[in-house]
Specification:
By secondary structure, this protein is of the alpha+beta class. The chain has two domains: 107 residues, no CATH class; 122 residues, no CATH class. Strand 13 and strand 14 form a beta hairpin. The protein is elongated and about 85 Å long. This is Flagellar basal-body rod protein FlgF. Belongs to the flagella basal body rod proteins family.
Length: 242
């Protein structure tokens, strides 16, 4: 493949990954506590394969590398729902949930009780509290979570929702299902929270849709340019065989 073709191919690969990221952001506009992601692009130099008197001979070709995706950690808007099991963190902090792969972290505080009476996330993962994963008996009523995370029922205080923070939250990695993982150990914090509320997604729908349309058009343009290049090479090959 020519150097021009390599540049365009690298551009297509980077844009494809960015399209997937944008599409995921748009799909989660209504997901409580969702944190959008932004891609960072950088230049990747590859030694040219051309030779002779061509402009790029014996030089480096500048390719596109989409680098890494960064999590947008900005606070989402807090929306009051009136649901006593909903809770939103104001400022720093992450809820801890238990998964088959170990503890994971989320900003989604739209909690509920599963069929066994256990406090879980919307996706069914047990919420970690000061008493561990918490299960309520059938006789307990009026379950509430206060602004400091205290969980109370008709039978009294049952514990507190565990909230932690990290030395560098930017190192958190998306783990699917609105969860994050980290290679560093978090520290417990005393958070500021809003009970009966959820933190909405921090994705701005209008901005993401505009970016998605622009990127789609650019992707199609580069793909068409590559097709024309391929057609031109094929025509030249056929011409040479005549």
């Amino acid at each position: 493949m020519s150097s021009t073709g390599l540049v365009r191919l690298s551009h297509l690969i980077a844009m494809r990954r960015d399209l997937d990221r944008l599409a995921n952001n748009v799909a989660n506009i209504s997901t409580p506590g969702f944190k959008g992601q932004r891609a960072s692009f950088k230049e990747h130099l590859k030694e040219a394969t051309q030779s002779g008197n061509e402009p790029n001979a014996n030089k480096y070709v500048s390719l596109v590398d989409n680098g890494v995706s960064r999590i947008n950690l900005s606070q989402g808007q807090i929306e009051f729902t009136g649901n006593p099991l909903d809770v939103a963190i104001k400022g720093n902090g992450w809820f801890v949930v238990n998964t088959p792969n170990g503890n994971r972290y989320t900003r989604d505080g739209s909690f509920k009780l599963n069929s066994s009476g256990q406090l879980v996330t919307a996706s069914g993962n047990p919420v970690v509290t000061s008493s561990g994963p918490l299960t309520f008996s059938a006789t307990e009523r009026n379950i509430t979570i206060s602004d400091d995370g205290t969980i109370s029922t008709s039978q009294g205080t049952r514990g507190k929702v565990s909230v932690v923070d990290f030395p560098n939250p930017a190192d958190l990695l998306a783990a699917g299902n609105n969860l994050f993982s980290s290679s560093t150990n978090p520290s417990p914090i005393a958070p500021r929270m809003a009970s009966g509320a959820i933190e909405k997604s921090n994705v701005v729908g209008a901005t993401e849709m505009v970016d998605l349309v622009k990127l789609t058009r650019t992707y199609e343009m580069v793909a068409n340019m590559m097709k024309k290049d391929d057609d031109s090479v094929e025509m030249q090959r056929l011409s040479d065989t005549l």
